[in-house]
Amino acid sequence: KNHTYSFTIMSFQTLWLFRIVLIVTFISHASCFPDQAGYYSFTKDAKLAPMFARFDYIIIGGGTSGCALAATLSQNASVLVLERGGSPYENPAATDIGNFATTLSNTSPKSWSQLFISEDGVYNTRARVLGGGSVLNAGFYTRAGDDYVKEAEWESGEVEAAYEWVEEKVAFQPPVMGWQTALKDGLLEAGEFPYNGFTYDHINGTKIGATIFDQAGHRHTAANLLEHANPDTLAVYLHATVHKILFTTKGRPRPKAYGVIFQDANGVLHKAELAKIATNEVILSAGAIGSPQLLMLSGVGPMAHLTAHKIKPVVLDHPMVGQGMGDNPMNAIFIPSPTPVEVSLIQVVGITKHNSYIEGASGVIFSYSWTRNYFDGVLNYLNEMQTSRTNTSTTFSTQSITDFFKSIHPLLSATTKAGLILQKVAGPVSRGHLELRNTNPNDNPSVRFNYYQEPEDLKKCVEGITTIIKVINSKAFAKFKYPDGTIHGLLDLILSIPTNLRPRHVTSVFDLRQFCIDTVMTIWHYHGGCQVGRVVDKNYKVLGIDGLRVIDGSTFLKSPGTNPQATVMMLGRYMGQKILRERGAFHKKDEEA
Questions:
Q1: Count of beta carbons in the 10 Å neighbourhood of residue 293
Q2: Which PANTHER family does the entry mention (predicted)?
C-alpha cells in the first residue's frame, strides 16, 4: 500500500509538473511564435507610431530586400521597418495572377504602383507596398548565375542557404500548358540548346523557371518572408514616408547616421533613432529609385546638385550617388492567336549565347480595360508634368493615344487570344543617371537610362528579336499564330501601339536596329544609383559615412539572372545573417574586454 501510495503521489507530481511545462511552453510560444502572412501583429499604420522611438536597426523600405533583411535581423535585435505604401494583404485578390495587369496598371495616387516616365520617354513604375516589386511583377523566380555570385564576392555556401530560406516561402514550379509549351519547343527549334527542364539555376539554353504564384494562382511575395520574423522585436509601419536620414559629426572624424524623420498619412512627423550601441545602423532598402533619392534628400550626393536644390547641410559630397543607372531594355512582339491561350506569365526562358533573354506571356494581360486604364494614368501624368518640365520629345499627343484606343479596341477585346514574346538585353552596358526634381520625397526624381546608347546593347536586341522571329515561324508555334500573318505585319502592330513616348520611323519595320530603338520598353529591372565600389563598399556600407548601409538593387552593377527578385530577396537574408554575425562578434569582444 505504501508503495502504491508513493507511486500515486509521484504520478500526480509528474502530471502537475507536465501541466506546468505545457503552460510555460504555450506562453513562451505565444510570445515568439511567428505570425502568419496577412495577420502580422507587428504591422501597423504609421499614424499609430509613437512620436519618438529607438531601435537597433532602422530599415527604410519594406520591399523585396527590406522584408528579408528585417525578418533576419529581428532574430537577435530590435528592428523598425518604414514602408511608404500599404499592405498587399489589404486586398489579396489584387495580387492573384489573373489581376496582374490590372494591379500593375492602377497608378492612382494611393495605389501600389507609382508611374514614372524616364527622360528617355519610356513608361515605368515603382512599387509602393509592403513586399515591393514582388507584389507587382510577373512572378518569374530564378537565381543569379555562378559567375555573378563570384563577381559579387559573395560566399557561395551562404548564398545557397539564403536562396533556400527564401524559396521555402515563395517559390513554386509552374504548370506549363499549351502556349508556354509551344514557346519552349519553338526556342529549341530556333537552336537555343540545351533544354534544362525546370530549374532555379541561370544557365545557357532553354529552361522552365520557378514562379511566386502557387498552383491556385495566388501570389507569394517578399512580405511572406516576414513569417520568419520574431514578432516581439519587429515593428513595421505602413504609409510611413521617410523625409531624411539624420547624421551627427559631433566628436567624430566623419558623419554617422543616427536616425530618421518620417511622416504619416496625416502629415505628422515622427522621429526614430538608433539605440546607443556601436553596431546599430540605418539601412536603406528603398530600391534603385528611392535609395539614391533619399541619400540626396539627406545631404549625401553631388555637392553642386544638392546646393542647387538648397539642401542643407551637405553632409558629404558624394558625386557617384545617382550615377550608373541601368535598365534592361525590353522589346516585344505581340502575336494574336487564332485559338484560345491559357493565362500565363513568365515561365519559359531562353538564355541565349548572345546575352539576350527570350520570355513570353499569354492570356488576359492584354485586355482592353487594363490597357485603357494604364494609358489614362500616363495621360494624367503627362498633364501634371507639362508645366514643370519636360525634355522628352514625343510624336504621341493626347489625341493620338485616344485615337489608338478606338482602333485597337476590337483586337484587345479578345482577351484570351493573344501572346507576347519579348527579349531582354542582359547587362546592359548603356548607363544613365538620377537627379532630384524637387525635395518632395513623394515625387519621382528625374531618371535617364540611355537605352541603346551603346552599340553592344543594340546588337544584343537585334539578335534577340531575330530569335523571336525564328520562334514565331517555328513548327512548334504554328498553332498560335494566324497562317496569313507576316512578321512585318506583327512588327507594324507593335509600332502602332504607344508603348513609349519615343518617335517612330517608317524604316523600323525593315530595320531591326531602328525597331529596337523605337519600341524599347522597360521590364522593371532597373538598378544602380548606389553601386558597389562607387557609393557602398563590398559590405554595402556607404563610403565615408558610419552607421549607414544600402542593401537593395541600387547597389547592383548589373541585374542578376533573368529576373532579379530572387537575388534581391536572397541579398536581404544573406546580409542580415552577416550583420548579425558581426554584431555577435562585437558584443563578445566587448564582454571579454
A1: 26
A2: GLUCOSE-METHANOL-CHOLINE OXIDOREDUCTASE N-TERMINAL DOMAIN-CONTAINING PROTEIN (PTHR45968:SF26), OSJNBA0019K04.7 PROTEIN (PTHR45968)
Provide CB contacts within 8 A for 535, sequence distance 6+. Answer: 292, 295, 318, 320, 321, 529, 542, 543, 550, 555
- Amino acid, res. 251: G
Identify the H or E element spanning 271. strand 269-274
Q: What are the grid coordinates assigned to 13, written together?
A: 507530481
Structure confidence at residue 35 (pLDDT):
81
Query: What's the CA gap between 495 and 481, in Å, rounded?
Result: 19
Please tell me the distance from the alpha carbon of residue 255 to that of residue 548, in angstroms, as a whole number: 10
Strand bridging mode 329-336 / 446-448: unpaired
Q: What is the pLDDT of residue 414?
A: 45
End-to-end, the C-alpha distance of the chain in Å comes to 61
Q: How much is the pLDDT for 586?
A: 84
Phi, psi of 282 (to 5 degrees): -95, 135
The CA distances from residue 588 to 166, 169, 585, 592, in Å, are: 29, 33, 5, 6
CB under 8 Å to 98, separation ≥6 — which residues?
217, 343, 364
What is the C-alpha to C-alpha distance for residues 304 and 308, in angstroms, rounded to an integer?
Answer: 6
Please state the length of the chain.
Answer: 593
Provide Rg for the chain, Cα atoms.
Answer: 26
Distances (CA, A) of 135 to 131, 211, 222, 548, 554: 6, 13, 8, 27, 18
The one-letter amino acid at 161: A
Prior bond of 445 cis (ω within 30°): no
For residues 356 and 431, the answer to whether their CB atoms sit within 8 Å is no
CA proximity to 297, closest of 436, 505, 495, 400: 436
| pLDDT tens-digit series, residues 471-524 | 999 999 999 999 999 999 999 999 998 889 999 999 999 999 999 999 999 999
Q: What is the DSSP string of 173-192?
A: -----HHHHHHHHHHHHTT-
Question: In this structure, are residues 131 and 146 in contact, taking their beta carbons and an 8 Å threshold?
Answer: no
Cell triple for 469: 522571329
Q: Give CA–CA dist 169/167, Å, rounded.
A: 5
The pLDDT tens digits for 184-228 are 999 999 999 999 999 999 999 999 999 999 999 999 999 999 999
Mean pLDDT of 346-356: 97
E strands, 348-402, where?
Answer: 348-351, 356-362
Which residues does the annotation mark as catalytic? 525
- Find the mean pLDDT for residues 53-79: 98
Three-state SS for 467-483 is HHHHHHCCCCCHHHCCC
